Amino acid sequence: MFNINPFQQPGQWYRGNTHTHSTESDGKLPIAERFAAYRERGYDFLVLTDHRKVNDVRRYSTSDFLAISGSEVHPQNPYGGATYHIVAINIHEPVNCAKMHPNAVLDDIKAQGGEAVLCHPYWCGHTISDFLPLRGYFAVEVYNDTCMGIGKGFAEQAWDDLLDRGGPVFGIAADDAHGITHDCFHGWVMVKSPDLTLENIMAALRTGAFYSTLGPEISDININHVDKEITVKCSSAQSIVFKAECHSGRRVLAPEGEGLTEAAYQVPEAAKYVRVEITDETGKKAWSNPFFFSL
Ligand SMILES: [Zn+2]
Ligand SMILES: [Zn+2]
User: Fold this and answer.
1) Among candidate residues 212, 244, 274, the one where a domain is terminated
2) Other CB atoms within 10 Å distance of the CB of residue 30
3) Could you give the 3-state DSSP secondary structure of residue 294?
4) What is the domain count for the chain?
5) Could you list the residue range(s) of the whole structural domain that residue 28 is in?
6) Can you tell me the distance from the alpha carbon of 241 to that of 262, in angstroms, rounded to the nearest whole number?
7) Which ligand is nearest to the CA of 119?
8) Which-ligand-closest: CA of 50?
């Protein structure tokens, strides 16, 4: 296995949202109120990602809350599809994206110490042909809450296509909050980190030490390398699904009228990766990052 397993790492879980707008672009709340709203809902960190803008948000950090500056940038798409929506986490200067190739935009984000997320592929109509030429992003939004306004918030297939035909990439659930309540506090990441410093939260994101959720909790994932078995423990679920490439995987369903809190999967000998998806009784989901067995 090539990446770390956050469930077996020391540290604490920190709840965060990586995609948010304010009145600096098309959001409904001013920056200070946006940060206050997330802090009051129990979030540990929030990334402000106004379209094409970057604001210095350090003043909104406290001892138990981390404000991270970022941006949502929109390079044109030379590969036939619609303009890209790319969230840059932890950048400090605007990216002049209108005139730049998307890979130059991704390079700029990296050069600033940031990390890039491919946003809401389903809503954009993006397919693997739009994404395969890109280099240097670390994650794709597997869920985007504001895109549920047209029912196109889930992007599990886009994530799996990238895993199968691109390379290692993590999955992020985010609000993409624009409004005051309707697209807020519904999708987030749980990040395992030794503390709430910017440096360690970024390191945890970069290495995939997190899972994404709309509510369900994943309490443990263990990989037995001798038996090649992956075991997951979680809050009460209706299904636990193990997804590997293409037609490989397994779905475990709860017995009728009961909840499921544990399941196991024998990892196929040729598996490149396995990721875990939980669905609870109300249809809410959680997604582990993939565990990579070969690259
Ligand atoms: Zn967007
Ligand atoms: Zn957005």
Assistant:
1) 212
2) 12
3) coil
4) 2
5) 10-212
6) 11
7) 1
8) 2
